């Protein structure tokens, strides 16, 4: 079966920096609902489209095709006293930000004295990446998966 809209592609993914140092690697395969549902980057979906189980490739992603450029306006500081207890560098929290007050995930970048520095950029923003993909399986998505916008079951989302 070929990977097309409304199929589930089960893939192994490895992300490395431009020098080939591994940043992230899946321990278990990931099940991705293909077809513009936002389950993965458009560049990854594009590379998988029309392929079958056994397909392997390595993509070179720029910030534009990957996680975007860094946006320095997404760096905030909050007094430590206004922060939840147990704050640690690397921790994440949702903060209402932007003109329309939408929630965005921020990562605690550093704690300096009584100030917590937050970064709302994706951790891989601004980076050139090598993404290696190996397709393990392809199957048709169920109607429920299509309605929910993600894969269910093994290697997918569990409700």
Main features:
4-stranded antiparallel beta sheet; mainly beta; elongated; 5-stranded antiparallel beta sheet; 159 residues
Q: How does this structure look, described?
A:
The protein has 159 residues and is mainly beta. 8% of the residues lie in helices and 40% in strands. The chain is built from 2 helices and 9 strands; from the N terminus they run βββαββββββα. Strands 1, 2, 3, 4 and 9 form a 5-stranded antiparallel beta sheet that branches. The longest helix is centred in the N-terminal third of the chain and has 7 residues, at 42-48. The protein is elongated. It starts with 6 loop residues before the first strand and ends in an 11-residue tail after the last helix. The mean pLDDT is 90.
Using only C-alpha atoms, the radius of gyration works out to 18 Å
Mean pLDDT: 90
Number of strands: 9
Strand content: 35-45%
Largest sheet: number of strands, sense, barrel closure: 5 strands, antiparallel
Task: Note the run of SSEs as H and E.
Answer: EEEHEEEEEEH
Assembly level: single chain
The geometry reads as: elongated
**How many DSSP helices?**
2
| Terminal CA distance | 27 Å
